Amino acid sequence: MKVGIEMGTASGAAATLDLEELLATRLLVQGNSGSGKSHLLRRLLEQSAPWVQQVVIDPEGDFVTLADRFGHVVVDAQRTEAELTGIAGRIRQHRASVVLNLEGLDVEQQMRGAAAFLNGMFDAERDYWYPVLVVVDEAQLFAPAVAGEVSDEARKISLGAMTNLMCRGRKRGLAGVIATQRLAKLAKNVAAEASNFLMGRTFLDIDMARAADLLGMERRQAEMFRDLARGHFVALGPAMSRRPLPVAIGAVETSARSVSPKLTPLPEAIEDVQSLILTPSPEELRQPPARRPRPVAPTPTADILEQLSRSLPEQSAALEPAPTLFDQAEREVLIAAVLAEIVEDPDAAFRADSLLYQDFLVRCRIRRVPGEPLGLPAFRRRLAIAKTGIDETTAASDAWQQALALSSDVPEDLQAVFLIVAQAAVTGSPCPSDAALARAYGTQSARRARRLLSFFEERGLAVLRTDFHGRRVVAFPDLGCETAPGDPNRVDDVPEQQAAE
């Protein structure tokens, strides 16, 4: 189906953008601050909202106003990376349009949050590869051309996610629309994957030269980018025009929360203005000292899931569940055996969940496990339980069932660590060492393992203490039990290779 999106006017005629072609060829928008770049993105989002699912990576919170007019779900990024990855996967499943609000986070947190979100959409199951318009504003933050003040790890993760979006996202239905203030600050391998361009006003020679090269213009024509008015762009690409085409972007229905400053007249001169400024008024003296307001709490994950569920199209008729043609008990035994094989692999602890999940699916096919395969969230939960090595007798106890219930409030990436310690408390075993907890978390840092236990204590889930011999004990008030004393520095319960390291 061909859908033409009216972006504005070109030489007095309507300038339309072929939405289906855009989904296949991606778009790059460039313009200095104040050139109308965000206005262009808003126009594109508003015009295409009825036709395609949209995801906006919003570092400044300017696009949250789309929620009131077009029903976008606003996801506050002040969450763990595991939560953002899970939400992104469910977004693809339920085909909901979303604005990821990164406002209030520092640059490194924004990079990590956006990377987790983009990777979650990229790793979605094949059944949910529906077309999605992924708009990334200020793309130079997430795909910088050179290293900045952020850590190399954060830059590598964010750049990898952006590269996946622009290079490999098309086959998964992800159509990247990236906007940047300066082409020179954007990684070349990310910018080079776009086939459509909208170039706005820019002043630096290096940016004008790159814009002219991308549009196939001569270097002497690059001066025109200095003279472009606000909201005017030069378009090129199969979705809009085969030749460079000046376009004036049309009006929008919604507005950003932040607007350009406007000049207002100053008040008339006041005598003795110095005393008015430096001396508090009687009303101010009577008031208590002002306190900084607490930051607004992010929307709970449960509320976002409820919004996503409401966005599902109503089924014309309820489908009856298909009859089960296999033994469920046999299926559970086979799945448990596959999970045990993965846990026993010494290298599995340090591999990403997405890679382990692919390994799990392959092993299930080899063993001919009947029925639909486990989804990624269910696999992560079952893998966390399998890492505890719980026996059947303990697994059937009320204390262990209560421990499983408590673990549901723990972030997904920490559930394995929590359950390993809880299992030791339920069975009265010695507290696991730092090395064992680090391995369960997928790291070799003992210091990070100790921080995880402190995190459980801060959440009120556990209480840590040390006996007279320096051995660690972890108590669980809700379970009414505690671990036996254990040496946090012992290495006899981890593989020899890790112990040597």
UniProtKB/TrEMBL annotation:
Residue intervals of the AAA+ ATPase domain: 23-361
Keywords assigned: ATP-binding, Nucleotide-binding
A GO term, aspect molecular function: ATP binding
InterPro entries: AAA+_ATPase (IPR003593), ATPase_Atu1862_pred (IPR014588), HerA-like (IPR008571), HerA_central (IPR002789), P-loop_NTPase (IPR027417)
SUPFAM superfamilies cross-referenced by the UniProt entry: P-loop containing nucleoside triphosphate hydrolases (SSF52540)
Stretch list, region Disordered: 482-501
SMART domains in the record: AAA
PANTHER family named among the record's database cross-references: HELICASE MJ1565-RELATED (PTHR42957:SF1)
Protein name, per record: ATP-binding protein
Organism: Mesorhizobium hungaricum
Lineage, uppermost ranks: Bacteria, Pseudomonadati, Pseudomonadota, Alphaproteobacteria, Hyphomicrobiales
